[in-house]
Write a structure and sequence with these properties.
By secondary structure, the chain is an alpha/beta fold. The protein has 14 helices and 16 strands. It is 26% helix and 13% strand. The strands form five sheets. It has a six-stranded parallel sheet with strand order 7-8-10-12-14-15. Helix 7 packs parallel to helix 8, helix 10 crosses helix 11 and helix 10 runs parallel beside helix 13.
Length: 486
Amino acid sequence: MLLDHVSIINPSTVLALALNLDSVLDKPSHSSMSRSPLNYLAHIQHLNLDDSVFTEEFYCSHNSNPPPSVLEYIQTDEFKEQCRSEGYSPRLLESEDVLLCHYKVFLYREASWWLAHPILEQLESMTIPLSCAHRYLGVVERLGNLQHVQFVMDQDIQYTPECASITNDSDDNSDMGTAHPGSATAKEGKWSGSTAAMIEFVKEHSRLFPVQLRTATCPPEDIWPAMYTICPNEVLLELCSILPPLSRPDFLGDENWMQFVAHPLTTDLRSVVDISRLGEGAFKWAVQEKRIKDGSVASAALLAKEETEHEDKGESLALLQEFGLVPLTSVNIKEDDVPITDEVDDIAYAFSETLQSLTVEMTYGTDEDEDENQQQKPPPIHVGRGWVDLPKLRDIWINKSDRLITHRMLLVHCPNVVSVSLTDESVQYWVQGIETCLPAHLPCLEKLTLEGWPALTFHPDTLHSTPKLTLLESSVGPMVYRPMNL
């Protein structure tokens, strides 16, 4: 078995209880026990323990209770002293549930180290609890094959006093004794404790094994009850600035966005086919670059001002002039639980010279029947505002589960488009609210699909300029006409 080849010498009490060792002191070394002839441990290259196994389903069935030995240990002064070091107030430590939560988190930390330590040389990816970063920093020279590391946010980001203004804006955290991450002004090199150890780990590994470590991530965690720990962007950006640029990524999303931001001018984006929804303002940087390239004095002046205030931006304007704009050709945006705002229009404007395919699927909210509460419906999405001519755009596919309102000039800006699909699921309308789009000249158009509101607003004169059109689909579905006076 796997555990037969892991040495258990001087284990922590938490680990000893979990492994049902009779006594931390009296139990003989595991090396003296009979071992399985198959050493599974020697073949492990990726050690990424799921913390939820320890925190959510630690005990095998819902009806089972923690062993008496565990319940007895968590009431000891030794254990409670460890808990107090996590920042909980003494009165919260009177709760058995809180103490058990600590036990499970402590076990996750110990188990991660216990399994990883014998095989560090062979690991290519691993998870490291943030609170244990100093442990792994001490053995970083053994991790020559490590390519991907994920830090588990089992602890708040720690700032040095001069770089953090601690404010407790919410009473929910009043017992935790921790600073609100958003209240701290982060400065490079001014982290403390485990946070500083995490950054130093990445720095030292990159120094010892240049370009070997490709990613270092810190996804949000809910390992503690009633706490959702998020790593601030300042820390993520500092980690990613140490790493090399992304190697020809095929997507940009939450998982790799900060590493792209750390190296925007040296990241090869020619293979990118998917861009996940990244939130309002995600592409303002591209809009600004486009305006500067097009000779916007105001944008150039703004960038010059930012360079003066932030030395790390250095020669951004000079690099833009040398390398040009990002040559993005294909975009696929899939909306999830947050509505799209300005991303589509910013992409169309910023990458107008190279964009060939634009796919947008918006599924946030639905347009229910007329008896539903109107206040619960998301607002209509407007697409096409601020667009300029897109000479290389060939395919447009935009679907909205509610109302999709296209700008009157949208198709006018796409003279060489071959395939267009603009659809929504609108179920009610009034004639006075329909604003017909301007007729467009589309000599290359072969396929045209319009459904819902886009079908109502499409200008039929556009069809006079579509000699290659082979497929035309237009429908308004089971829509309900609502007079304005109702």
